[in-house]
Amino acid sequence: MLLRRMLLIALTIVPLAACGSMRVQDFQNNEPRLRLEDYFAGQTKAYGLFRDRFGDVRRQFVVTIHGDWDPQTRTLTLDERFRYQDGETDRRVWTIRKTGPHSYQGTAGDVPGTARGEAYGNAFTWTYQVDLEVDGSSYRVTFDDWMFLQEDGVLLNTADVTKWGFEVGTVTIAFRQVDGTDVDADAQAQVLTGE
């Protein structure tokens, strides 16, 4: 009797979980429209934090991003400079190619393989792996990224981070477009000199 009741509960929960799965196509009519090549061309600044699976904030950071869109090759290059609250710095350079009206593929030095994503309406999602360096060791984790463009040019990003299918934590980031005078002077100098 107990086994049958547990089975009924499980069969009820599984379809409900499947129905709750978000699809990027569900946002196709939402405004404002998010086009990565438009939003990230030029200077962007982002503010973020990482929460572990228990909800505790483990890291906070600011990212200065310089983006170049090449319409000939349909390629967006993003030079991201991270500055963490503890003073540590990092850099990631994305090469993102628009492969269709809604599809994108991206590569970066610490991203094994290729990130694949889609944009519809005000939403963009993609999944990729990252090799994270922690205390001299490297850990490969998976990011399930969702971005939503809001009014006034604010872009909200949330990413679930997992390893072997188990939750590691969540990254939350808010992006805003800036002009050259609003970018950190040291980060801007690094972008200009290529350091």
Keywords:
single chain; 195 residues; alpha+beta; Lipocalin; 10-stranded antiparallel beta barrel; 10 strands; disordered C terminus; signal; DUF3833; DUF3833 domain-containing protein
Characterize the structure shown:
With 195 residues, the protein is an alpha+beta fold. The protein is 16% helix and 55% strand. The protein has one domain: Beta Barrel (Lipocalin), CATH 2.40.128. The protein has 3 helices and 10 strands; from the N terminus they run ααββββββββββα. A hairpin with a 4-residue loop joins β3 (75-84) and β4. It is globular and about 40 Å long. It starts with a helix and ends with a helix. The model is unreliable at 1-20 and 185-195 (pLDDT under 50).
Anisotropy-based shape:
globular
| Major beta-sheet overview | 10 strands, antiparallel, barrel
Structural Rg: 19 Å
The low-confidence parts are 1-20, 185-195
In the CATH hierarchy, the third-tier topology is known as: Lipocalin
Report how far apart the termini are: 67 Å
* CATH architecture level-2 label: Beta Barrel
Task: Indicate how many domains the architecture comprises.
Answer: 1
